[in-house]
Amino acid sequence: MSYLLFQVSFVAYILAMTVYLVFFFTQKKYVRGLARKLFFAAALLHTANIIARLVEAGHTPITSVHEVISFFAWSIAWCYLSFRWRYTVKNFGTFSSILVVLLMLVSALAPHAILPLSQTQHSWLFPVHASLAIVADAFLALACIGGLMYLLQERELKQKRFGFFYSRLPSLESLDKLNQHCLSIGFTLMTIAMFTGYIWARRIWGGRNWHWDPKIIWAMITWFLYAALMHQRFTMGWRGRRAALVTIVAFVAVLLTLVFLFRGVHGHGA
Fold first, then answer.
1. Which of 43, 83, 163, 171 is least enclosed by beta carbons within 10 angstroms?
2. Could you tell me which residue, 213 or 265, shows the higher pLDDT?
């Protein structure tokens, strides 16, 4: 039942993305309204999928590649929706929906069998740590999207073409504010996630040499990258192109952290 809901939500996301792309090219307001409704419906269906998966598995569904990537896509969808209720950023939904669909595709291609919890995952800290980390990554993904949109718009302005993207993207100021907002939330959640992860690791592995786990190393590298970016933004006044570029580079580190997720002590059965 849960996988059927996953498939239905995947199709709904694809429909939403398609309509968003139609709006991106046509700029018809009624098309944008339809895209938003479809995306919201897809997110609701995805929520039902995760709840059904939780009931079937008997634990938070974040123990396999399929579940983690699906949860990542779900987090991006709801982080975007929560952001949209407060701010209006032109065509942000188009870019966000594309990323969600790509992640859902990766999740769909991964084995979807429900895996039992490993011995180390039998702790209330595990779902807290993992969920916080994934939601943090979702906000950082939105910051990366904002950075990409910033570079596209800046390129249009520098070349003084005022062409296709210029009329379809927000102002540079709006995109910079988007970047700062998402970074602030994402970095805060990432810090809390690392703290809960440290407590969980100390309880499970004690003095074992878990510090050199590849996932932990990349998580630390990622945290320092974002810490440096936040420091430069708030104390040195970093804005614009420089901040957008570093945001994109830092998100590459986030993706590498996900690649190492199921290796070392984070791997299933560790």
1. 163
2. 213
CA distances from 181 to 47, 170, 185, 186, 261 (A): 25, 15, 7, 9, 26
Q: How far is Cα 76 from Cα 137, in angstroms, rounded to an integer?
A: 8
Mean pLDDT (whole number) for 25-37: 91
* Measured distance between the N- and C-terminal CA atoms of the chain, rounded to whole angstroms: 29
User: Which tokens go with 174?
Assistant: 């709006």
**Could you tell me the pTM of the whole model?**
0.89
* Per-residue pLDDT tens over the stretch 103-148: 999 999 999 888 777 766 677 778 898 899 999 999 999 999 999 9
Do 149 and 95 meet the contact criterion of CB atoms below 8 Å apart? yes
Q: Which amino acid is at 254?
A: V
Task: Report residue 129 as tokens.
Answer: 């740590």
CA distance 64 to 255: 16
